[in-house]
Design brief:
This protein is α/β, with parallel strands linked by helices and 280 residues long. The chain contains eleven helices and twelve strands.
């Protein structure tokens, strides 16, 4: 059987639970493209060799997920501005003979809010819970979209301070004890921690402390409505779940590899929501 003419992938370790093949497969079928997108589990010690043989194996590029994002950053010949500022790569592609690394997580975060909370950009203050890799993408997106007061809250203050130093003006670092006070005048609350995931239920902050106009969003999407979002909705606040970030971050990569910019539609969202429901 002949190879598909256009090939892309998602690589991580483990990677079998990735929804990316379902997302990109939907778009490939929708646009009638002769192409393929598959999940490839690569152990950390094998990742450099995997990347160096992509062209020989006819891949146009692919997505990179945990734990390879920083390794992909180091292996890329060139990087886009988002990857450079965030310090991690989640998308690889070939251009002008070079392997490019990009980061589309910030795009996905902002586009999700554009969809479900239009008018959010440029408003602040924003409180960001957590100081891991995901928070870097969120902070980059907030700065790009004109938010000038970004407050990072983390259990380990030193990690929040590292991000403050990385992103500079308009970003401050705080310990968890300051959360309630910081929420008092916030326009946006973003949870980037694992709190709220299945098996790690908990409330990362109390939405009762927020003003009535605040927006609450969570990058967690399993479950779709985390305890934080449920509490915020009960409080009457605007909430945005994390699934749209996953869907929108996939758009730029698909365009790079397959030549068409796809749309995030209600049909695609419904397809992935159905896949999130635990199978009997």
């Amino acid at each position: 059987m002949a190879e598909a003419s256009k090939k892309a992938f998602v690589s991580g370790h483990p990677v079998k639970h990735s929804r990316s093949p379902k997302i990109h497969g939907h778009w490939l079928a929708k646009h009638g493209i002769d192409g393929s997108y598959r999940a490839i589990d690569v152990a950390p010690q094998d990742f450099a060799v995997f990347v160096k043989t992509l062209q020989a194996n006819n891949y146009r590029g692919g997505n990179i997920t945990i734990p390879h994002k920083e390794a992909a950053f180091a292996l890329a010949d060139r990087r886009d501005r988002a990857a450079q500022e965030i310090g991690a790569v989640n998308t690889l592609w070939f251009e002008d003979g070079a392997l490019w690394g990009g980061n589309t997580d910030a795009h996905g975060f902002a586009a999700n809010l554009d969809d479900h909370a239009p008018g959010w950009a440029g408003k602040g203050p924003a409180v960001v819970l957590g100081a891991g890799g995901a928070s870097r993408a969120v902070i980059h997106a907030l700065k790009e979209r004109g938010v000038t007061d970004i407050r990072i809250v983390n259990r380990t203050l030193a990690r929040a301070q590292e991000l403050r130093d990385r992103f500079g003006a308009g970003v401050s670092a705080h310990g968890m004890a300051a959360t309630d006070e910081l929420l008092g005048d916030a326009s946006l609350l973003v949870n980037t921690t694992a709190l709220g995931m299945h098996g790690n239920e908990g409330l990362s902050a109390d939405p009762a402390r927020l003003p009535d106009h605040a927006i609450v969003t969570d990058i967690v999407y399993v479950p779709l409505e985390t305890p934080l979002l449920a509490a915020a909705r009960a409080r009457g606040l605007k909430t945005v779940d994390g699934l749209g970030m996953l869907l929108h971050q996939a758009v730029p990569g698909f365009e790079r590899w397959f030549g068409i910019r796809p749309r995030v539609t209600a049909e695609l969202r419904a397809l992935i929501v159905a896949d999130l429901v635990p199978k009997p």
